[in-house]
Design brief:
Largest sheet: 4 strands, antiparallel
Distance between the termini: 49 Å
Mean pLDDT: 77
Shape: globular
Order of helices and strands: EHHEEEHHHHHHH
Structural class: mainly alpha
Length: about 300
């Protein structure tokens, strides 16, 4: 199907908050074309079409930018790219909101006594080791993740590299869901309703995670992620129930809950196993995996 320059501009430069791109891509998917319809030259200037990269896709475009020829598969990929961009924007907004809440909390306790601050930050419960006790030192805020370098990753087995890229993209949906329920349970409101909204979305993520094709060498790593997700769903269900009964309860009260401990353990195991499988892993791929596992964890 032929897309003129005006429609290409709509896809390339979407207006914030609008759904023009979704509507346009839906219309394009409804257009009926056949392979023999594909032009070799621009219908406007008659110049030979050339293959160029456009929104991460290799498509045939007019060298004078009058338009481009795309297939239905190209349009589907454009929709997927647009959806991922929307998710990233929402993650950045959620990260900003969490940062603002944290800054406000620190300001409120600033003038408390030393004993009160110590009691607040260090409740009298046995310690739980965080997933990542020694962060890698990446400066990216939560919600802006490092990408796997497709052409430079130390993962040199194609099916394993494809799995890692697809798994990390899917994991971002699980992170979105976790951030939403975490934020909802930090604020006054109906904890049961928050849990009821979270659980079907995270179970949908779990279904997709279970359905992924997994290379044999990464089967145990993948199993750790599945079990971590199962326990995470159980943890937030229990946390919401306690919040519904006592609005003063926060996540610190759940530090010894078996589901939280299990979630933490499984993510730790997944990351350690990944490093064992790829001992010469490049820094960018390592950071891409680390940052998402870090964000997916609860503590």
């Amino acid at each position: 199907m032929w897309i003129d320059d005006g429609r290409l501009k709509t896809i390339r430069e979407p207006r914030p908050g609008g759904d023009a791109v979704d509507r346009l891509l839906s219309v394009l998917l409804g257009e009926r074309t056949h392979p023999h319809d594909a032009p070799e030259a621009c219908p406007i200037c008659q110049q030979q079409l050339v293959v160029r990269t456009y929104t991460d896709l290799a498509i045939k475009m007019c060298p004078s930018e009058h338009g481009a020829w795309v297939t239905a598969d190209d349009v589907q990929r454009m929709r997927a790219n647009h959806a991922r961009a929307g998710h990233a924007a929402r993650r950045r907004l959620m990260a900003f909101m969490l940062l603002a809440v944290t800054a406000g909390s620190l300001f409120l306790v600033r003038h408390q006594t030393a004993d009160a601050i110590t009691g607040y930050l260090f409740p009298a419960v046995p310690p739980v080791t965080p997933v990542f006790a020694n962060p890698l030192g990446t400066s990216a805020p939560l919600g802006t993740f490092t990408e796997v370098p497709i052409n430079a990753s130390a993962i040199d087995v194609r099916e394993e590299l494809v799995y890692v890229v697809d798994m990390l993209r899917l994991l971002e949906d699980g992170i979105d869901n976790r951030l939403e329920i975490d934020q909802a349970l930090r604020e006054p409101g109906d904890a049961a309703a928050a849990a009821a909204a979270f659980e079907p979305k995270q179970r949908g993520f779990l279904v997709q995670l279970r359905a992924m094709p997994v290379p044999g060498r990464l089967a145990t790593f993948h199993r750790h992620l599945v079990v971590a997700t199962e326990n995470q769903i159980e943890l937030y269900r229990a946390f919401a129930a306690r919040r519904a009964a006592d609005a003063s309860v926060d996540l610190r009260a759940m530090l010894q809950h078996p589901a939280l401990v299990a979630t933490n353990r499984e993510i730790v195991s997944a990351y350690r196993l990944f490093k064992q499988l790829y001992p010469d892993l490049d820094a960018q791929t390592r950071d891409a995996v680390y940052e998402r596992l870090y964000a997916f964890d609860i503590i």
